[in-house]
Write a structure and sequence with these properties.
Layout (H helix, E strand, L loop, with lengths): L2 H12 L1 H12 L4 H22 L7 H34 L11
Helix pairs in contact: 1-2, 2-3, 2-4
Length: 105
Amino acid sequence: MPQEFKNALVVFPMNPIFAEYYLKKISEGKTKHQALICVMRRIISIIFNMLKYDTEYKAPAHLIEECKTKFIKRQQEDEETAEKIMKKKAVKNSCIIDIPMVKSS
């Protein structure tokens, strides 16, 4: 994987807006690599417009809070799913079938 992609992967947990956009693209059926390219294109578009109009980047506060909430909710759902899977595995592994031995006469 090229270094540019590795650096971009570090951004996702820190920026909930881009993390949410990345996950949205994955849910639309894009591969992780394609979703990453979509995020990078969005970042480039933001930077281009900042330079073009000589403005500062101001992330919408309501969008940040909404994305943080979705991100936290998704993490909780993932943890609950993982717990359910672990419980199923534990139950499956602990079920030992006792077959009575039949004595021959």
